[in-house]
Amino acid sequence: MDMTESFRRDGEYEQYENPYQGAQQHAPSPVNPEWPPPPAHEPTATVEAPTAAVEAPRKKRTRGPVALLAAVALVAAAVGGGTAYAVQELTGSDTVAAGTTTSVVPSSKKGDIAAIAEAVSPSIVEISATSNSGESTGSGVIITSDGEIITNNHVISGASSIKVTTSDGKEYTAQVVGTDSSKDLALIKLEDASGLKAASLGDSDGVQVGDTVIAIGSPEGLTGTVTSGIVSALDRDVTVSTDEGQQQQQQGGGGWPFEFGGQEFNGDTGSSTTTYKALQTDASLNPGNSGGALIDMNGNIIGINSAMYSSASTSSDAGSVGLGFAIPINTVKSDLAQLRSGSQN
Known about the structure:
Thrombin, subunit H, 6-stranded antiparallel beta barrel, 4 domains, single chain, alpha+beta
């Protein structure tokens, strides 16, 4: 059977064929001059078809911002930008909550060091810790709007008082919440703080050698200093002291003792030490950068700067020679619950 016969048997052309042919399907002979005679039943097929044809396109139309948001998010995910950034662009927000595929700068500024520094600097603080050995300066990263700050344990170890200065010059008193000397990490909390800008914590497992990075901290008390470089290596074994007395001795000199490659730098690490895997960077780090942020080109924190290599014999003469080390941010995130519990070790 050909297509013409099929259509005709289904009645598709009843309205357009010779009326006499149509009549033969209903009666043997005409009963009046009006032609064609009324159908024996309602021609539902010929009436419903146009309705369906009209309604179908209506179902495909997007309806309001929800449909538009979903469409933009899907496109962004397909090109690797991540859905969180798609939401940011659609809503006009300049910042996005912490996440591994988010960006804290507009897409047009991605990779722009000046824009990233401007966006992240409000989340970096200067820490002044006073102990029996004197006063030391370090840095820290704000992780909650009410003043939780991550820093190095050696920055605040043995401190009798801690003062924190934010990027806008406001000063706070801070208390130690928890410490983990085995990872050289500490969590402190500002008193009576609110509305602070929390940093976006990234994913250090995705970092590759050669990635461009930014370091922000307070080297030698120079608050908000920005340097840049690349990730030079991954999984470097860095050894630091876990002895509180040993760390206090070095704080007055402005450095922090550590071992790398079988050698000691910035003083004696003592007999009680711990070793962790670190990111190596050639971004310039100096005494005072400790506890500050190592940042990727999306503005996410990928590490906490913790040590720097120097060939100087004393910490007071130490200076950057392009060999710095940072604790991976994933190590920090995995340790947060313990630090928040008030553990002191």
